[in-house]
Amino acid sequence: MSRSAAADEIILSYDDAVLRQSDLRILSGPRFLNDRIIEFYFSYLSSSSSSFPSEDVLLVPPSITFWISNCPDADSLSEFAQPLKLPERKIVLFPVNDNDDVEVAEGGSHWSLLAYHSGRNVFVHHDSLGGMNKRPARRLYSVLAKLMGKDAAAAEYREHADSPLQQNGYDCGLFVIATARAICSWYDVAAGEEELWFSAVKEQVTKESAGKLRSEIRDLITSLMERRKN
């Protein structure tokens, strides 16, 4: 094994998410989050929320979202998406990346979140850079409207103008995670009382709370690693 391979060894497998040593380094400094870290936290959120395991809410991994958005074959995409049971979900959360090149793994320079609420039949795009990802989000929406059942074909698309904004060029993935967590929390507590999750996102997602997530996720990973050893 080469020195570089050993330095980036697998440190944790959590559901389908596999984390490497380099992911801890990303979380230790002001760096852009990669697919693996977002997939890990989405898996953790799914297993730790009081409403999960649930058939109602689905947090889609970044790699799956990317393929839905960029798959060139509509027939194979429909078959690919069937196990997700998208038409049966009440809430579906998709991390959006601005990479559209299927030949480039973990490309792109910005993350945002597209959230679907079946009861309101609406897709809401939360972008911490004020709409920078509008084009890839709309592309994803146009594909999903055909995959998520007959009602979704007429679904509304919204750019949430009041989405919390990042103050740097690298915290977008943290804002995606923080927003997803706020929406899941809203669904646990207030889904029957409020039409949508906007108040929960406004209250829970700030530049301070998103910034703290970096160390929270790192500490969570190290804690799970220690637990697996014992």
Automatic annotation (TrEMBL):
Q: What is the lineage of its organism?
A: Eukaryota, Viridiplantae, Streptophyta, Embryophyta, Tracheophyta
Pfam families under this entry?
Peptidase_C48 (PF02902)
Organism domain of life: Eukaryota
The answer to keyword Protease applying to this record is yes
Q: Tell me if tRNA-binding is a UniProt keyword of this record.
A: no
Q: Which UniProt keywords apply?
A: Hydrolase, Protease, Thiol protease
An individual GO BP term: protein deneddylation
InterPro entries given for it? Answer: Nep1/2-like, Papain-like_cys_pep_sf, Peptidase_C48_C
Q: Which PROSITE patterns match?
A: ULP_PROTEASE
Q: What is this protein called?
A: Ubiquitin-like protease family profile domain-containing protein
Q: Which residues form the Ubiquitin-like protease family profile domain?
A: 17-183
UniProt lists the family membership as follows: Belongs to the peptidase C48 family.
| One MF annotation (Gene Ontology) recorded for this entry | cysteine-type peptidase activity
